[in-house]
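hey all, quick one before standup. I had two proteins in the batch that finished overnight and I want to keep them in one place so we stop losing track of which output belongs to which input. First protein below, input sequence then structure tokens straight from the run.
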Amino acid sequence: MKRAITILSALAVVGVLAVPVWAQVKELPTQTTTISGTIETIDKNKRAMNIKTADGKFVAVNVPDSVRRFPEFKVGDKIKATYNNAVIVRLKPAGEAAVDTAETSSTAMQSSGSAAMVRRMTASITDIDKSASAITFVGPNGWKYSRRVVDPTVFDQVKVGDRVDITWNTDLTVALE
């Protein structure tokens, strides 16, 4: 019985200490964009193409190196590209060292390919626009990023000048239809 009380007490202490840490990490909703259409132009050297969607809009797509059959793509091909963007933000404690890393992976199949990147960086909050429900960050090498904030309570937890660690998971899949 004494052992059980000791274990429960230890778990309670760990739980109480962990709650403030959980409050500092915010996972933003994943944004998914899918583009379907016809390849209108291709720049093989830059691995870029313009896709004309069903509603007549043109969308520029940079094709990752993992799409190995990209040289076989041609104007007029039907294509589908899906881009997922998941972001996790953590308020950075004072004095903690900055981070700036990127890891990539890729897969290739018969007529499609995908690339994924996990980017971790330290950025500073440079603007908070409550009326637009958005926060703007500036990171290494002048990198700038604005993101819509769904949870308005976030604005009460941060201020301009705060440093945050951003983990940005992105993946792009390109497939001929």
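OK second protein, same deal, sequence then tokens:
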Amino acid sequence: MKRLTIAVCVLVLVSAVAIIAQTTQTTFAPRGGTVEQELIKLENGWNDAMVKHDVAFLDRILADDWMVGESDGRVTTKAQFLANIKSGDTLITSEVLNDYKVHVYGDTAVVLCHYTEVSTNKGKDTSGKYQGTDTWVKIAGNWRCVATNGSKVEQK
């Protein structure tokens, strides 16, 4: 009798955990995919927008108070970043992202990835391998990037 009671308790506990996990997945992925897939799609869209100079797309996915910590220590605001793309001061002709790591914390997520780009900034070659970290927050039902940090990876 004692074993039967323990078995029933374990079964109820496992069922409860499965229901909670399924509910959590549905809550965080209303568009049919996982949050991780949605964020990687946004990251890839960002990449494409940089190459195509699609300022409208970038404006939509970046929060108004977004900022980026640049590889050289500067901090750039959204307005400065978009102005640099519009003017051609920041020019990316190729960018390949890989090795994504996505961590989701409710309506906040952190995406870490590596990327290789061919780029110039105000005529200076900035091409190379980088590691980027983007912090995303779900605002009014949509993911918006609120902060980015990019670091150039030193070649060995």
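Flagging for whoever picks this up: The first helix runs from residue 2 to 28. Strands lie at 62-69, 75-77, 90-105, 108-121, 124-125, 128-139, 142-152.
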